[in-house]
Design a protein that fits this description.
By secondary structure, the chain is of the alpha+beta class. The chain has 2 domains: 82 residues, Alpha-Beta Barrel (Multidrug-efflux Transporter 1 Regulator Bmrr, Chain A), CATH 3.20.80; 74 residues. The chain contains 3 helices and 8 strands; from the N terminus they run E-E-H-E-E-E-E-H-E-E-H. An 8-stranded antiparallel beta sheet has the order 1-6-8-7-3-4-2-5, with helices on one face. Strand 3 and strand 4 form a beta hairpin. The N and C termini lie far apart (44 Å).
């Protein structure tokens, strides 16, 4: 498979309601740990506590040292009350730099690098969180879609600094 070319754009992302579990994860370990956290969200669905739409969303925030604060989430169809460690979460909203990755999750880092390079080239400052929205699984790697979003500072936020 040839190397993917990424088209990065600036857009407005609205807040999206999710059900999720918050965890501190070492950088590079998300792939090894997401299952244990998402399993809790899907267990809440089986218990009838939440109606999920089935689309996984991971929200990333900087943590202390080499940690990431990750919200392992699934989209919801209706509001719900927290059940155990599964809590209502909203994606950030505002202006974002965004791109779409098609294929193997193992090279998803290339899409992240493309967004960060675009931000540098366009003098856009990151506002903190980023998130990945996963399309539904397919055995055909060319149909596996992941959308990436990086929240951007606005001109108003820059003036406050």
């Amino acid at each position: 498979m040839s190397e993917q070319t990424y088209t990065v754009s600036e857009d407005h992302a609205g807040a999206r309601a999710l059900a999720g579990v918050r965890a501190s994860v070492l950088r590079g370990q998300v792939g090894a740990q997401f299952g244990v956290h998402l399993d809790q969200v899907y267990a809440a669905q089986r218990a009838g506590a939440v109606q999920l739409d089935g689309q996984n969303v991971f929200v990333y925030r900087a943590g202390p040292g080499n940690d990431l604060l990750v919200e392992f989430c699934v989209g919801v169809k209706a509001p719900f009350a927290a059940i155990g460690s599964v809590v209502p979460i909203m994606t950030p909203s505002g202006m974002v730099a965004t791109t779409t990755h098609w294929g193997d999750y193992g090279i998803l880092g290339n899409a992240h690098a493309a967004v960060l390079a675009w931000c540098r080239a366009h003098d856009r400052v990151l506002a903190g969180p980023s998130w990945e929205v996963y399309g539904h699984w397919s055995d055909d790697p060319s149909k596996v879609r992941t959308d990436l979003f990086y929240l951007l500072e606005t001109d108003t936020q820059r003036l406050k600094h």
